[in-house]
Design goal:
Blueprint lengths: L11 E8 L12 H4 L1 E8 L4 E5 L4 H10 L2 E4 L2 H12 L5 H8 L1 E3 H8 L14 H9 L12 H6 L3 H23 L4 E3 L2 E4 L28
Parallel strand pairs: 1-4, 4-5
Antiparallel strand pairs: 1-2, 2-3, 6-7
Helix pairs in contact: 3-4
Amino acid sequence: MLEIHPPHGRNIIVYDLEIKEPIAGPVTWDRHDLMGISVGVAYHYLTGEFKVYMDDNIAELGAHLHQADIITGFNIIGFDNKLIDATLGAKGDLARVLNLKSYDMLVESRKASGWRENMSFPKAMRLDDHLECTFGKLFMKTANGAEAPLMWKEKQLGRLISYCIDDVAREKLLFEHVFAGRPVKTPLHKERILDRTRLGFAPPPPHPLPNLDVQKHDTI
């Protein structure tokens, strides 16, 4: 097993993106090229800083993610990596690189519940489900991602940026909890420790049998 050091001081980034356009009409969840990025926030463990990225410096975020050893967040493989790739016109090349170094806490939580790639997604696995059940109601999100495009359209930039920072702070809290080998909870699934193999730890014990109460999609 590799020698493990705390995340602080390592080239690990926690990040999250918000979109400009609401999901409606031609803008569907698979049209990342039409969404736009209103704001991105990243926490850099290497420097201990939160950084904000918007139209004038969004390319810097792409470069920072490309240079990182590990990137983490919630649903980044399913959403954020694809969004920044499309926004920067990388045609899938950036997303492929980022996915290889991604520790996606939603994916790992699904797997720890018994889910596999040929199965429908488990219910009740939003970020808020993890935050409320693991830490309590006070640690839940401060807004809903669907509100972000409205904030952007109404030029409520302070509120929008604050919301994205709050999301990254909560994802950072969850990541450090997972990194330390502590269990997470969600409403419909047993307490479980997530696989940290991608972070350099030994594999966990075998997964329990999957919960059969499932649905096709999960949201952030």
